[in-house]
Amino acid sequence: MAEFVPWSEFEEEYSSSFSAVMGAPAKPFRMALGALIIKEKLGISDRETVEQIKENPYLQYFIGLSSYSNEAPFDASMLAHFRERISAELVNEINQRMVKKMLETASEESTEKKKKIQKEKIIL
Prior knowledge:
Elements: H1 7-15, H2 29-42, H3 46-55, H4 57-62, H5 78-85, H6 88-123
């Protein structure tokens, strides 16, 4: 799923609402959206989401961490901030782009499969 989410396309839009001089640095868009996706997919609480991410290297990769850590990447209260910052309209736009990318990939794979079958028929 990570390869279908257009993380970088929305990072600039997400980070544009933060001040570079005030407050703590914002968490990356991939971390914010990834954590919300994990929470919704697993149907768990904010605290459980952070615990799952802390314990699972695959989930850490999904939210953009480059290496495994047994430390929580953020406090559970950050999920409330993530929900505030990522609007329903933005989620809908991301979903539309994901579906488009998935369909394009499936179409390319189908075309490649047809070409392979044609080559095998020629050889026979």
